[in-house]
């Protein structure tokens, strides 16, 4: 068993209230979410960054690694965890929790899948892209993050930060500990990230499974926008570089939609250039 729905259903009324009343925007933190055996197995088969297929997101606003090519994701994570979290039963649970109806899972896991960050890794504060890269009427609504980090120390950094909508301050810090799930609305001002470079020992990485959920909307009923990185009050002159990089990401996102390319394609090109150097 991957997930005990009877346990989750018993808590659903309380969890729904906590989710929808949470600040700075609707979210919830649930520990021991997956069945222990399932979480342990997912961790045991979690691939290393040096393995085939990883996309290396390394630029001003982030330094992390992702694997979203389904054929390269370990079978248990793909056909166990991801399949379960994209199932009809889980979607119904998610709709009741969030109050958002007609949620659609992204079975292509574009931008999602499994993520991993090493020492020095970070992800600047941002609000996520609002539209699926290849489905123009799919509005992004909910993120589900499953953390798989045993014996994680606060000193390592890597806590997920949820910021005020006006970017005045961080409201919540969430340690990425083993078998913890975080669910949150992905509105245009749902700012989050882990902006400080991590200080974990060599060989220890921040591991997560990331899944995104959408609703199908009428054309023109919402604004298409790329990932919106934002500077913190303490970022000083770094603000300029964050803004420039954000604009470059916006251009890249637009090209993805027009040309039908994905992050895996671009990563292969960049890796080719790296090998030639």
How would you portray this structure in words?
The chain has 277 residues and is an alpha+beta fold. 30% of the residues lie in helices and 27% in strands. The chain contains seven helices and 14 strands. The protein has helices spanning 5-10, 12-21, 36-45, 75-85, 88-98, 238-259, 263-276; strands spanning 27-31, 55-59, 62-67, 104-105, 113-117, 122-127, 131-132, 135-147, 160-163, 170-174, 180-185, 192-194, 206-216, 228-229. Strands 1, 2, 3, 4, 5, 6, 7, 8, 9, 10, 11, 12, 13 and 14 form a 14-stranded antiparallel β-sheet that branches. Helix 2 (12-21) packs across helix 5 and helix 3 (36-45) crosses helix 4. It is globular, with a radius of gyration of 18 Å. The model is unreliable at 272-277 (pLDDT under 50).
């Amino acid at each position: 068993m991957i997930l005990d729905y009877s346990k989750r259903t018993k808590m659903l009324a309380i969890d729904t209230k906590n989710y929808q009343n949470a600040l700075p925007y609707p979210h919830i933190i649930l520990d021991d979410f997956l069945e222990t055996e399932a979480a342990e197995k997912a961790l045991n088969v979690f691939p290393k960054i040096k393995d085939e297929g990883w996309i290396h997101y390394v630029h001003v606003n982030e330094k992390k690694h992702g694997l979203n090519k389904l054929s390269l994701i370990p079978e248990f994570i793909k056909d166990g965890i991801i399949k379960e979290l994209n199932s009809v039963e889980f979607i119904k649970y998610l709709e009741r929790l969030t109050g958002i109806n007609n949620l659609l899972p992204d079975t292509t896991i574009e931008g999602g899948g499994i993520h991993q960050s090493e020492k020095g890794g970070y992800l600047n504060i941002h609000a996520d892209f609002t539209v699926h890269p290849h489905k123009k009427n799919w509005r992004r609504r909910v993120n589900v993050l499953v953390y798989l980090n045993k014996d994680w120390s606060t000193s390592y950094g890597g806590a997920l930060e949820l910021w005020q909508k006006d970017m005045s301050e961080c409201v919540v810090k969430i340690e990425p500990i083993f078998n913890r799930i975080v669910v949150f609305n992905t509105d245009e001002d749902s700012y989050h990230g882990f902006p400080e470079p991590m200080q974990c020992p060599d060989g220890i990485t921040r591991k997560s499974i990331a899944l995104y959920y959408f609703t199908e909307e009428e054309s023109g009923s919402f604004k298409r926008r790329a990932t919106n990185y934002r500077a913190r009050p303490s970022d000083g002159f770094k603000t300029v570089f964050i803004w420039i990089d954000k604009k470059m990401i916006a251009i890249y996102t637009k090209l993805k939609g027009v040309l039908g390319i994905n992050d895996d394609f671009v990563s292969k090109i960049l890796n080719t250039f790296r090998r030639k150097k």
